[in-house]
Amino acid sequence: MSSNCTLDTKTYAVDDGRKLSMNDLLDYFRQHGSMRVSDLHLKAGSPPVYRVDGLLQKMKGPPLSPGVVGQLVESLLSDGEMETLRRHRSADSSCVTDTMQFRLNCFYENDGMAVAIRALEPTAPRVEDIGFPNGVWRDIIQKQQGLVLVTGVTGAGKSTTIASLIDRIAQTRPCRIITLEDPIEYRLTSKAALISQREVGRDVPSYERGLRDCLREDPDVIFVGEMRDRDSTSWTLTAAETGHLVFSTLHTRDTRGTVTRVLDLFPPTQMDEVASQLSLGLSHIISQKLVPRADGQGRIVAMEVLNNIYSVSNLIRLGKTEQLYSQLQTRTKDVPNERMTTLERSLVALVHAGKVTPLEAERVANNPLAFIEEMKYSSEPKP
User: Fold this and answer.
1) Cβ-contact 300, 293 below 8 angstroms
2) Which of 15, 217, 294, 342 shows the greatest Cβ crowding within 10 Å of its Cβ?
């Protein structure tokens, strides 16, 4: 931390005359659990704002002043990170308290400094507790090679899903696992496997350089925190194509959009080549959303799952991404060569289990009309 302020420095004066430290603000996560309270936002002109069950809630208290926000940010960052923030106008970092770990991004905006803080669980959850709609996770952890993409908007739990899969691999398989993360979110323990976690910006300058290095470090399993650009995507595809099991993430809302996003990263002259490479190297795409529970106690995951079987691979190679949805609708048996589902069907299952309300499920569905049809079909008596 910076020499001027620490996490325990009382900085923020609330209405009753008390002053709160950064630690006091972070303790709210511990009290309510990071599955319910996921984020904290601090900016001048507003009281602290928490994201609870996916919705923003302002803390009862006076607006933060620019000076107080600056002191709170200073308590979170090292002297070197503060210098980075001043020079580049933003800085990524992480913070560890006695009970929790946090990922944060500090930045400048119109009113001065601001910070977005994301709560992380200290250990990856059991893969059985993630909420997979079928047994696809069993197929994934047994894979020896291929690309597994977990996609969704920011805060959809992508890193948590991947961490649970890698943690189970580490428990059961004597293999070499290397991760490239920005920043490291879950501290994974070498069990049967040998794990090295590298943080971009601290241990390696970029994802591209990390991937170049990684291919010379005898990995069996690679986790690339995000396919950010053409170079990192190209190296990730190459790693999957050359006999490694590779996990990565993209900010896309569904499986078809994921395939399109990968292809669109490259110029038209390379599209056919990349489509062929992706069709051969892809293993699974899991697109997920976190949906508020019907009982109001946190959120639950809904997933769309694409398994790159031969018919899917052929559609990707030919660029017929508009036909992928029909594969998701028809190849739904819970057996290794199928195990696909649409997000809408996953939501219907959650509604029937009483875990999500129909109104909320329809709201988050990628295709509300398809969700309504699925609900109608699933409620009709079968002949």
Assistant:
1) yes
2) 342
**Tokens 């028809």 belong to residue:** 330
| CATH topology assigned to domain 127-379 | Rossmann fold (3.40.50)
CA 156 to chain centre: 6
Q: Match 């079909």 to its residue by tokens.
A: 377
Q: Please, which residues bridge with residue 47 across strands?
A: none
Question: pLDDT digits over 237-278, tens only?
Answer: 999 999 999 999 999 999 999 999 999 999 999 999 999 999
Tens-digit pLDDT profile for residues 342-363: 999 999 999 999 999 999 999 9
d(CA 151, CA 250): 5
List where CATH 3.30.450.90 sits in the chain: 12-120
Q: Hey, which CATH number is domain 12-120, 3.30.450.90, 3.40.50.1970, 3.90.550.10, 3.20.70.20?
A: 3.30.450.90
Residue 376 burial (CB < 10 Å; 0-12/13-18/19+)?
exposed
Amino acid at 158: K
Q: Of 101, 105, 84, 82, which Cα lies nearest the Cα of 93?
A: 105
CA angle 27, 28, 30 (to 5 degrees): 65
Cα–Cα dist 146/245, whole Å: 5
Contact of 79 with 73, CB cutoff 8 Å:
no
Predicted confidence band of residue 97 (pLDDT cuts 50, 70, 90): confident
- Which regions of the chain carry the CATH code 3.40.50.300? 127-379
Question: 126 in helix, strand or coil?
Answer: coil
CB 158 within 8 Å of CB 152? yes
Asked if residue 121 has pLDDT above 80, the reply is no
The number of angstroms, rounded, from the C-alpha of 271 to the middle of its chain's C-alpha atoms is 27
C-beta atoms surrounding 224 within 10 Å = 28
Cα dihedral sign for 23, 25, 30, 36? negative
DSSP per residue over 139-154, as a string? Answer: HHHH-SSEEEEEE-ST
- For the chain, where are the alpha helices, taking DSSP H only? 22-32, 66-76, 79-88, 136-142, 158-172, 207-214, 230-241, 255-264, 271-281, 310-318, 324-330, 343-352, 358-364, 368-379
